User: Which sequence fits this backbone?
């Protein structure tokens, strides 16, 4: 079986070497970078399966790296796990809004990180569930195969997480999906503050839906329902 590729972008030498050691020992093909521009250059040539990205980087920070990464069509679906020493929730929320898959606060347990990586890779490579390849409602067209959406002819790109979230909502349209259900099916995680992650991604998805944002209905105290 081909090795999965993991890109580590971390400026702290000891942390970078520790990550490389643990990931290599776990059977991954690993490349590292100590700065944002270097990381982006390597990723554009090497095409990793997952990126571990520190927020505090020289030159450009990890949030900007994530933003640029998600603008590259060939790399948009690559899951990103943010690494941060900050306890500030704002940094984590911004990272998730930019399309990051998950975040881990330093100091972290290598065992927990490996589990998060395994889960993220499984989700990114999972066989798509049975759903229309192209789904339409008035001027809203979703191409699930291409991770793309059109709103009245205006193309909107979806991150891998937004794609899975919208697919779950469309498949269950008319039924209420709890935050716990979405966390299990879209993120497969129960990390602290995870319910806020659902709300953050839902806001981002609604913004891309534009005039169809109201198709996603908030059911107070329960979760979300897609009406179309």
Assistant:
């Amino acid at each position: 079986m081909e090795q999965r590729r993991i890109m580590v972008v971390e400026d702290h030498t000891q942390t970078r070497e520790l990550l490389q050691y643990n990931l290599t020992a776990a059977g991954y093909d690993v490349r590292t970078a100590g700065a944002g521009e270097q990381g982006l250059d390597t990723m554009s040539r090497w095409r990793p399966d997952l990126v571990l990205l520190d927020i505090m980087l020289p030159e450009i920070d990890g949030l900007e790296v994530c933003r640029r990464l998600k603008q590259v069509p060939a790399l948009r679906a690559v899951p990103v796990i943010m690494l941060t020493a900050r306890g500030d929730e704002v940094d984590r929320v911004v990272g998730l809004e930019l399309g990051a898959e998950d975040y881990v606060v330093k100091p972290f347990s290598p065992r927990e990180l490996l589990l998060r990586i395994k889960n993220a890779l499984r989700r990114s490579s999972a066989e798509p569930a049975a759903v229309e390849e192209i789904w339409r409602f008035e001027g809203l067209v979703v191409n699930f195969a291409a991770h793309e959406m059109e709103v009245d002819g205006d193309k909107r790109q979806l991150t891998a997480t937004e794609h899975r979230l919208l697919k779950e909502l469309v498949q269950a349209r008319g039924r209420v999906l709890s935050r716990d259900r979405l966390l299990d099916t879209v993120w497969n995680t129960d990390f602290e503050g995870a319910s806020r992650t659902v709300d953050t991604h839902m806001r981002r998805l609604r913004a891309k839906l534009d005039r169809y944002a109201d198709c996603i209905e908030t059911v107070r105290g329960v979760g979300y329902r897609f009406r179309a």
Summary: The mean pLDDT is 85. The longest strand covers residues 5-9. The helical segments are 13-25, 36-46, 62-69, 89-97, 110-125, 160-171, 179-187, 194-209.
